[in-house]
Amino acid sequence: MPHVARLLVLVLFVVSLDPWASKSTASSYHEYPRRLAHHIRMPSLNSSSKVTRTGSDRAEASIKGVEEIPHYCAYQSGEAAYAGTIATMDVYAFPNLKKGQSISAHISVADSQTSNQLVSGWEIDPDLYGDSKTHFFVYWTTDRKNGCSNLDCDGFVPVNLATITPGDTLEPSRGHMNITLKIFKSKEDGDWWLHFGHDINNLSPVGYWPKSLLNGMQDHADDIEWVGSTFSFSGEISPLMGNGHWPRSNSAASFRNVQYIDRNGKGYDPPMGSLHAFESHKQCYRTGVFQLQVQGNMFYYGGPGGCTG
Ligand SMILES: *[C@@H]1O[C@H](CO)[C@@H](O)[C@H](O)[C@H]1NC(C)=O
Ligand SMILES: *[C@@H]1O[C@H](CO)[C@@H](O)[C@H](O)[C@H]1NC(C)=O
């Protein structure tokens, strides 16, 4: 066999050995842009909940100048016009988180020019909620400085008889559950709706962000993200992310059924090679390969934490 042909056969063999080679999007790792670091940091700086947080460890720490450090593992869309996204997340219970620490996983729909942004997911944040329970949350901002969590201020409009209300606790049985969240711009009223369920086929409306709230997203959003994150104070040990397992294990935390939503409310796959992967602290947390697959696009993320800077 001529040398070149033998080499080609070898290359084909190696490629076929890699189970992700044909179906993963080519993802490159970037430094998380500064503007994005803001929206995994989601204190409602300007809402009524400010009152309850004054005197909190977090508020005192920021006064004393102790730095609160965000850590994140994420995928971000390429810049294009989007009408929404859907994803299913693993949800966990960590009843012993300390004040000053938080763990979250969420989806984000945003406009990069105006910094309009809608977020929903789960979080454990003793400083914010006064307990170490897992809470379902929503958040919005129009400038990445002033924002609002849950129903702390006017903005998100909950629907009557919704199965869940922003801020409610989620109670993962035996420490684990799945939630599916869908944020999309409704064709009927133009508002940005949030649907919730425990699996992708049984979603129901939670409420909506009125289009009048979001000048920068009158027609569409241009930035979609799926994010795992943690916070801790500088010098303190950062908590685990996801469920603490590295993404190379299939027991790690995941985002599943990851899709964009079109103008008719239907899901569609991210184009190959269009997503950017992020890891803020590789030694503590990792973002797994994004897998485009028929049974649902997914990636694993997380890690044991333990970073102090
Ligand atoms: C933030 O505070 C300013 C000044 O009090 C107020 O005018 C503005 O409406 C507030 N924004 C939100 C989102 O609550
Ligand atoms: C969550 O989803 C995974 C993957 O589809 C499934 O294997 C698991 O049984 C689900 N867990 C629960 C508690 O529903």
TrEMBL record:
Boundaries of every Neprosin PEP catalytic domain copy: 63-308
UniProt xrefs under Pfam families: Neprosin (PF03080)
Keywords from the UniProt entry: Signal
Coiled-coil positions: none
Keyword Phosphoprotein appears in the UniProt entry: no
Signal peptide positions on this chain: 1-22
InterPro entries (UniProt xref): Glutamic_endopeptidase (IPR053168), Neprosin (IPR004314)
Protein name from the UniProt record: Neprosin PEP catalytic domain-containing protein
Source organism phylogeny: Eukaryota, Viridiplantae, Streptophyta, Embryophyta, Tracheophyta
